[in-house]
Give the backbone structure.
Amino acid sequence: MASSDSDDTQAPVPSALKILVAGGFGAGKTTMVGSVSEIAPLSTEEVMTEASYGVDDLSGVEAKTTTTVALDFGRITINEHLVLYLFGTPGQERFWFMWDELSEGALGAIVLADTRRLETCFAAVDFFERRGVPFVVAVNCFEGAHSYEPSEVRDALSLDPGIPVVLCDARERQSSKEVLLTLVNLVAERMAA
Amino acid sequence: MPANHEQRPGGADDPSVPAGAEEAGPLVRPYVIAQGRDHADSVKLDMISVVIAAKRAEIDEMALEPEQLRILELCRRPQSVAEVSAHLDIPVAVVKVLLSDLLNRGLALARAPYTAKSPVSRDVLQAVLDGIQRL
């Protein structure tokens, strides 16, 4: 990468890390990002090339279309050498193709489970398991939603015993912090193993 | 050209924007800025590559696009590609092209993020834990 520290007066260029926040549409991804971010969540649009799945690909490259994908993200400055970004992944099924790019190099992921629609996070769980991305499942306790025990969610999602399941309120910084710490501790444990 | 930094891009006083260009929408114009190039050819930039404007660089404003001057202004403090995109409302792919050019000119510095090929150390993880605790 083009970086030069030869100039003494030049401020250091920090390295970045990212954590993904996944889950179904409306599960509270952007809310969680916003609760811990030092900036109001930003939104960016990435123009992606999307292969036309489900269509017989007789024509090759012509079958591709471009799609604009919106990503919400927040920032936590760790120190002058390190910045952590939290990215909310697009919830819609048709955008999964880009998770490969998003998940590349991610420190880990938080799968936000909405117990009113638990099935909406199956895909994220499956994806991170297959990619070997460390993740925790955070059950967002919406007001008025039927509350489940973490063990019930674990059973419903057929989670590996090594995957932490925690209850949270994505609106609360302290609660979202706990989820982040659970994830980073998991990453540290796996590194030590 | 006067200092471009203060101008509202796309505004009536921006000579680089022909009348009516605003109506064309934000998805058309960025590709004009990037002069038809749709990928950064020499520097591999990630969405979370962090960029900072080079401190002592001499800037020839005439040689740069107005958007590049805005990027340099924004990057006086370290910013990721994604942040530049969000703050300036330019798609990530176009930001990468504009930044790549700035890097090649020595006007900005970038650092690649941690990846699977350059995994984090225990010290970095501890720093992350400490940083989250302080929130």
User: Anything to note?
Assistant: Residues 1-7, 52-62 of chain A have pLDDT under 50 and may be disordered. The interface with chain B takes residues 1-4, 7, 9-11, 13-18, 36, 42-47, 68, 71, 73, 75-79, 82-85, 104-105, 107, 173, 177, 180-181, 184-185, 187-188, 191 of chain A (CB under 8 Å).
